[in-house]
Design goal:
The complex is a heterodimer of chains A (about 260) and B (about 400). Chain A has about 260 residues and is of the alpha+beta class. Chain A has ten helices and eight strands. By secondary structure, chain B is of the alpha/beta class. Chain B is about 35% helix and about 20% strand. Chain B is built from 13 helices and 13 strands. In chain B, the strands form two sheets. In chain B, strands 1, 2, 3, 4, 5, 6, 7, 8, 9, 12 and 13 form an eleven-stranded mixed beta sheet that branches. Chain B has a two-stranded antiparallel sheet with strand order 10-11. The chains are: A alpha+beta (about 260), B alpha/beta (about 400).
Chain lengths: ~260, ~400
């Protein structure tokens, strides 16, 4: 399976620009203090009016912001994406899903009783809530997939995204990764990678502005290793590819080669 | 791409060489079909947990005790998945050595199975009485219980893994994605299916949306008042033509076509005109390449919620008005991420036997739907059937299945 990465956007503890991402991950990566920094999503207001975000939680806002940044980087307007409708697929990788809404729903039944759970928190707690909000915002009506495969989520979901391209179910794929910080997970020592989102515009052929070629193959799962923040690794690899560097990502029994054009 | 022996339509058809399932109907496809054709299942209040609702919400529990070993090392969802996956592998008749020579991938749909589902720990965390070690253990248990990971670990598979979290269409999506992985050459065999357990979280959640019924559910009925949750798991062993030849096995069914789409309309409600569902059905029919009139049956999502059944009825009226349809949710409850896989397994069983049970719970047509499921046992005229799922987030998925009969 193969495809071309033709637009990218990322938000997280490092900021909301590709320059900030490169700087944040340079020289051995961030400090543990930096990973605890919340993401500044104030820039989302450039793309989505505040009123439309009232019932959208932090997990979904991370995804929405990053998705808009990736499309902007690809030179595509939301209107152009909406016009593509069923010809675009949306695929999202998440290691842990909407943890904030999950625990807020539990809070609602613990505090108010089993008959008084919050329907808003419950409906936002499904792992594919981010895919739902992004597809609604951008009018993406093709195949819609959310994958939760732990540290291998990025590679596993990429197999779905490139599969839609190679199988002809989509002419392009908005592909992304999102995970949010959660105090309960921090308590269990899970968030060594911080929170963030990275989205990518994938095309079956190179276009003007494409960053790199992605080739995905199976490899025995015991040789695979990845981190929860696979999306940031892919974003950095795409930037490195512009400088002529090749890199390899692994996870979920899959190997992703990132090659310069 | 070269055409395989199983190709008749738009894409290569993928062989199904093994089937396994567990649900309130029982353990294994034979036992489940036996219960489905002979008994009148009724949902009951949950026995493994309780909720504070004024009247207990009835559910379809899997009445088996082997799914929750005393160690508690894995979540119940993982145990349900392991049981159904083991059955499906046994059904292939292929020995371990032969399996070990192939690239076996695992694709599983789930909702609960990919979340930190440990309310007891969370309550202690809120009270400040949980130890950090307990938090680490809860997260480690969740990681071990990832259904695709748990299956690969148990059976020693080293192929690609994917846990699909598309809410209630996850099981159907997993089958379609598994088939695409074989076509793309990522695997020789794919264990594709879904698994989900009943728990307080989902029961209280669906109750909060006011879509649960206090009575046995009545899919497509005028007086339907909501769904009953259920639990279970089902798996199909999908095989490439090369693997089928190498193993010397005969497929018992084929995945002939798959389609998926998104409404892009609402977080929890389907598009009122079913535009996304129609798109997914059309995509599946196009992949199949057969004549829609040759479909013997549609196994509908049919949850018995007001919105779902109305939208499905409109879509079926528009695209497949002459094809008999039913819902099996009245026998199993809504098993969420497992539903699409369980319904695909049952549909294969119906096609093999040439008969299908009526839509349990249906009695009175709904003028707003304008189309009614069949009641009483139906003799199937044809070798192909469609199974479809809708989900939170606007996801729709449809799969065309066929048998050699």
């Amino acid at each position: 399976m193969r495809g071309y990465l033709s637009g990218l956007g990322a938000v997280g503890w490092f900021g909301d620009s590709l320059q900030a991402l490169e700087k944040g991950l340079a020289k051995g990566g961030p400090t543990s203090d930096a990973l605890l920094e919340p993401s500044d999503l104030s820039g989302l207001a450039r793309f989505v009016e505040r009123r439309a975000l009232r019932r959208v939680d932090h997990y979904c806002r991370l995804a929405l912001y990053s998705a808009h940044l990736a499309l902007e980087d690809a030179g595509l307007s939301p209107e152009e994406i909406s016009e593509m409708g069923e010809r675009t697929a949306l695929v999202i990788a998440t290691g842990q899903g909407a943890t904030g809404s999950t625990f807020r729903f539990l809070d609602s039944i613990i505090e108010d009783g089993d008959s008084s759970g919050s329907p808003t928190h419950f409906s936002n707690s499904v792992h594919n809530a981010a895919a739902a909000h992004v597809s609604m915002r951008l009018g993406i009506k093709g195949p819609n997939l959310t994958v939760s495969q732990g540290g291998g989520s990025l590679a596993s979901a990429l197999a779905g995204a490139l599969g839609y391209l190679s199988g002809g179910q989509a002419e392009a794929v908005l592909f992304g990764w999102v995970d949010e910080r959660c105090a309960v997970y921090d308590f269990g020592g899970a968030h060594t990678a911080g929170e963030g989102a990275a989205f990518f515009w994938l095309t079956p052929e190179p276009v003007s502005g494409s960053y790199c070629k992605l080739t995905l193959e199976a490899e025995p799962v015991e040789e695979a290793a990845s981190s929860l923040a696979g999306g940031l690794e892919l974003a950095l690899s795409a930037l490195d590819a512009r400088g002529g560097e090749r890199s390899t990502l692994r996870g979920a029994g899959l190997r992703v080669e990132v090659e310069p054009l | 791409m070269s055409r395989a022996a199983g190709a008749i339509g738009g894409v290569d058809q993928i062989g199904v060489i093994g089937v396994g399932c567990v649900s309130a109907l029982g353990r294994g496809l034979e036992e489940s079909l036996g219960a489905l054709f002979s008994a009148t299942p009724e949902p009951r209040p949950p026995t493994r947990f309780s909720t504070g609702h004024a009247a207990p919400l009835p559910v379809f529990e899997a009445e088996v005790d082997y799914v929750e070993p005393p160690s508690g090392e894995l979540m119940r969802t993982a145990h349900l998945a392991l049981d159904a996956a083991g059955q499906a592998l046994e059904d292939t008749g292929v020995d371990d050595a032969s399996l070990g020579s192939l690239r076996v991938a695992t694709v599983v749909g789930t909702t609960v199975g990919a979340t930190l589902n440990n309310e007891e720990f969370y309550r202690r965390y809120l009270r400040g009485t949980a130890a950090e070690e307990e938090g680490r253990a809860a997260l480690a248990r969740m990681a071990r219980s990832n259904p695709a990971e748990a299956i690969a670990q148990r059976f020693g598979f080293s192929g690609p893994l994917q846990t699909v979290s598309n809410a209630c269409s996850s099981g159907t999506d997993a089958i379609g994605l598994g088939a695409s992985w074989i076509r793309a050459g990522l695997a020789d065999l794919v264990l594709a299916g879904g698994a989900d357990e009943l728990c307080r979280y989902t029961l209280c959640g669906f109750s909060s949306l006011m879509v649960t019924s206090a009575e046995p559910c009545k899919p497509f009925d005028r007086t339907r008042s909501g769904l009953n949750l259920g639990e279970g798991a089902a798996f199909l062993v999908l095989a490439s033509e090369r693997a089928i030849e190498r193993l010397g096995v005969a497929p018992r069914a084929r995945v002939c076509g798959f389609g998926a789409s998104c409404d892009a309309h609402h977080l929890t409600a389907p598009h009122p005109e079913g535009t996304g569902l129609k798109s997914a059905i059309k995509m599946a029919l196009d992949e199949w390449g057969g004549n829609p009139g040759d479909l013997a049956l549609v196994n509908a999502h049919g949850t018995a919620t007001r919105d779902n059944d109305q939208v499905e009825g409109r879509a079926l009226t528009s695209i497949l008005p002459e094809v008999p349809f039913h819902s099996t949710k009245g026998y199993t409850g809504h098993t969420l991420g497992a539903a699409g896989a369980l319904e695909a397994a049952l549909t294969i069983g119906f096609l093999e036997r040439g008969r299908a049970p009526g839509s349990m719970g249906f009695g009175e047509p709904d003028p707003e739907i304008g189309i009614a499921p069949f009641v009483g046992e139906l003799e199937l005229k044809g070798r192909y059937a469609l199974s479809q799922s809708l989900a939170f987030g606007g996801s729709n998925a449809a799969v065309v299945l066929g048998v050699e009969r």
